[in-house]
Each structure stands twice: as C-alpha cells, then as structure tokens.
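Weekly modeling sync, notes
Attendees: S.R. (lead), two postdocs, one rotation student

Agenda item 3: backlog of single-chain predictions. S.R. asked that every request posted to the team notebook include the full sequence so nobody has to chase files. The rotation student volunteered to paste the first one in as an example of the format we agreed on. Action items at the bottom.

Example entry:
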Amino acid sequence: MAAQGAAHAHQTHNHRACIEDALATARELCAARGVQLTPIREKVLQIVWRSHKPVGAYDVLDELSRSHKSARPPTVYRALDFLMGEGLIHKIESLNAYLGCVEAGAPHSGQFLICRHCGATEEIVDRKLETALEAAAKRTQFAAERKVVEISGLCARCAG
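Predicted structure, as returned to the notebook:
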C-alpha cells in the first residue's frame, strides 16, 4: 500500500507515472461501474493529482480554465463530487481541499498526515485504526457514515 507522501519523498519518484497510473485506474473503475469519466472529470482528476498536496476547488478552476475557457465553479464542484463519489479522490476537510486517493476502488476510510509547514499530505491506510474507529462507534451505538482522520504536524523533511 503505497502512500503518497512517502512516494513523494523518494528521489526516484516518477510523478508523471504516478498521475498516469491514477488516470488509468480511474478509467478502469469507471468503465467497470458503467459511469462516465468525461474529459472534464478526467482533467479535474489530473489536476488534483498534479502534486502530493491537497488542492482547492478554485485552484482546480484556475487550472481547468486554461484548457476549458467556459469552466465555471459549478463545473468543478460537479466533477469533484463525482470523483469523490467514485472513491477516486478525498476531501481534506481541515483544508477544504482535495487529494488523489492512493487506494482508489478499495473500500477504506480516509486517514491523512498533513504537514503544516510544506503542505505535503500522505494518505495512510491503517486497518487497525479503521477497526478501532468502527468498534468505538459500535460501542456507543453511533451509526458512522463517514470516517476521516486528519493529523497535522511536520513531515520528516520539515521536522529534520
């Protein structure tokens, strides 16, 4: 289970391949589910994946409007909603921004380490943490609909 931030930290990380893998996965998942990954949705996904830092909706709009002059906020929000609904991106609530999902297609909750200095964000997938959250909710008879854990601090590069 590769983590975005960890992959980004390695000098040999091929970000272009990273983006192409994400797009290929999205195309396969959408085709298998019978949903349309329109050119606009694909472009928005590509923009979200352009770095390993969460990107805001208006940053997506700025980038999208370079190639799609008629792009407006509703266009971007509809595309982001679609991509989230298909499990291809996550919303980082504390930043009101979006990040590509490293485990697209696999059911999991969002767990993120967010560097408060450089903004690098790493998605982690810890099944024990996920199980502990489910058990805690069950003990209190709470019907959890969405589980997101966001931990802010300093990445290894900024802390060192």
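Discussion: group reviewed the output briefly. The first helix runs from residue 4 to 9.
Action items: rotation student to repeat for the remaining queue; S.R. to check formatting next week.
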